[in-house]
Amino acid sequence: MAQAKISAKASEAAQQQSGGQLHGRFYRSTSMADRSSRLLENLDQLELRVEAFRDAASAMEQEKEILLEMIHNIQNSQDMRHISEGEREELNLTANRLMGRTLTVEVSVETIRNAQQQESLLHATKMIDEIVNKLLDDLEDAKIRLMSLYGACTSDVPAGPIDQKFQSVVIGCAIEDQKKIKRRLETLLRNLENSEKSITLLEHQKSSVRQSYNSKQD
After folding, report:
1. Which residue of 22, 63, 163, 199 sits 20 to 30 Å from the alpha carbon of 73, by its own alpha carbon?
2. What three-state secondary structure class fits 209?
3. Domain of 74?
C-alpha cells in the first residue's frame, strides 16, 4: 500500500515536471520569436540609414568632382587671359589653394560587383579612354564619338547616333557604375564644349586683329 502511494506521487511529480518543461519550452520559443522580430526590425531601420549614408557619401564624391572642375575652368577661362599678369598670378594662387584644400578631402564609395560587372566596367572605361587619348588628334571626331557613348547611357531620346556596342557593355555594369560612367561622359562633353568656345573666341580675336592690321596697311 505504501509502495503504491509512493509510485503514485512519483508519477504525479514526473507529470508536473514534464508539463513544466513543456510550458517552459513554449515560453522560451515565444520569447525567441519576439527577440528575432525586434532584431529584424532594427536591421531594417539600419539598412535605411546605411543606404542614406552611402547616398550622402556619393553626393560628396560628386561635389568634389564638380568643385575641381569649376576651379579648373576658372583657371583656363578667357577672362583669366584678359587681365594683368599680376592679377592672373594672384588669382591662380587662390585657385591652386582651393584645389589643394579640395583634394585633401578623401571620399570613396566602393561598388560591390561580380566578375561580369567588373569586366564590363573595365571594358567601358577602356572604350572611353581610347577616345580621350585621341582628343588632340581630332577634336570634332572625339566629340561626336563621346556623344554617341553618352546617348547610350541616357534614357532620353538622343540627338545623334547611339553606340550600340557601348550600350551593351554599360548594361552589364553595376547600377552605380552606370551612373559614374554617365557623369564622366557629361564632364568630358562639358570640357570639350568649353574648349571649343575658347578656340572659337581665340580665332575670332585673331581674325579681328588681322582685319585691323590690314585696314591700317591699306
Report:
1. 163
2. helix
3. 38-109
CA 141 to chain centre: 27
Q: Tell me the pLDDT band of 11, cut-offs 50, 70 and 90.
A: low
Beta-carbon contacts of 171 under 8 Å, excluding residues fewer than 6 positions away, are: 178
What DSSP character marks residue 113?
-
Rounded Cα–Cα distance for residues 211 and 147 (Å): 36
Alpha-carbon span 123 to 173, nearest angstrom: 10
Q: 153 and 93, same structural domain?
A: no
Q: How confident is the model at residue 43 (pLDDT cuts 50, 70, 90)?
A: very high
- Whether residues 132 and 193 share a domain: the answer is yes
DSSP state of 76: T
pTM of the shown model: 0.66
Nearest-CA neighbor of 148 among 166, 161, 134, 130?
161
